[in-house]
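stage 2 :: seqdesign
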């Protein structure tokens, strides 16, 4: 079996605010150690279950957070920025399953550090389905026929995963109190949970179907203010819906929609506030 693991940071055990996930802040260095250990628990369990190949994609911010020298020696790491497919770089039809670790709830929803790509996004849609990073990434996996077998993160990320992906295994390492507070397991307890849940997810892989995306998806991104929508609308082929901050793009497939989302959110970050 060949397994793909995408590791974000906001859903990692004990991490609750920007001081944990911003490389310029005081809690970041200890947080990336916990993040690496958390990835290792999943990787080790996967190999214990008979996986022959495990590919890990660092999926947070500049995507160079995981400490490669501390990762399981048999894994391979996709690291760095810029990646054409960001959080799902390297994912293709050769994988038997995918696991999302350290994930969080989508923008405008309850959850620790909930957001969708950038903090200027209120909502993202594929046709009429509201998605965040978790859902969008699961659709890309589904395009390749790859099921998302497990999602690890806070309780709200788990709820989002269960609503989108029937029979997915979830590993809840912290419970949301507010967007910047949680009741968390310790790393030792979380590690045991992740090891057990990964084993369960791989044993139950036959019960999980890929999240199949629509053939011609309509991407919609609702931004926090009109300036962000204007910036995103600089991408050819987009339109701003009248009297809204929503920018739409008709894509030929989910891969094009994903890259359009990356471009639109990157442009939107150019907005200046005054």
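stage 2 :: out
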């Amino acid at each position: 079996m060949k397994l793909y693991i995408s590791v974000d940071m906001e859903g990692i055990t004990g991490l609750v605010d920007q001081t944990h996930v911003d490389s310029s802040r005081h809690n970041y260095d200890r947080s990336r150690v916990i993040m690496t250990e958390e990835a290792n628990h999943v990787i080790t369990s996967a190999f214990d279950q008979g996986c022959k190949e495990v590919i890990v994609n660092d999926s947070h911010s500049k995507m160079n957070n995981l400490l490669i020298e501390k990762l399981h020696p048999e894994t391979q790491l996709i690291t760095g920025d810029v990646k054409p497919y960001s959080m799902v770089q390297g994912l293709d039809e050769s994988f038997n399953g995918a696991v999302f670790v350290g994930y969080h709830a989508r923008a405008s929803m309850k959850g620790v550090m909930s957001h969708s790509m950038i903090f200027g996004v209120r909502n993202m849609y594929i046709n009429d389905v509201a998605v965040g990073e978790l859902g969008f990434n699961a659709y890309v996996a589904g395009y390749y026929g790859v099921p998302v077998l497990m999602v690890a993160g806070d309780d709200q990320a788990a709820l989002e995963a269960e609503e989108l992906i029937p029979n997915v295994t979830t590993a809840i390492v912290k419970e949301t109190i507010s967007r910047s507070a949680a009741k968390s397991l310790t790393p030792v307890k979380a590690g045991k949970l992740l090891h057990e849940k990964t084993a369960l997810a791989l044993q139950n892989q036959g019960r999980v179907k890929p999240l199949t995306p629509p053939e011609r998806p309509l991407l919609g991104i609702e931004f926090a203010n009109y300036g962000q929508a204007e910036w995103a609308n600089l991408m050819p082929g987009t339109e701003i819906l009248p009297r809204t901050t929503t920018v739409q793009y008709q894509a030929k497939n989910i891969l094009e929609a994903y890259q359009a989302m990356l471009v639109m959110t990157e442009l939107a970050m150019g907005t200046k506030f005054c």
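stage 3 :: structure notes
- The chain has seven helices and twelve strands.
- The longest helix spans residues 28-48.
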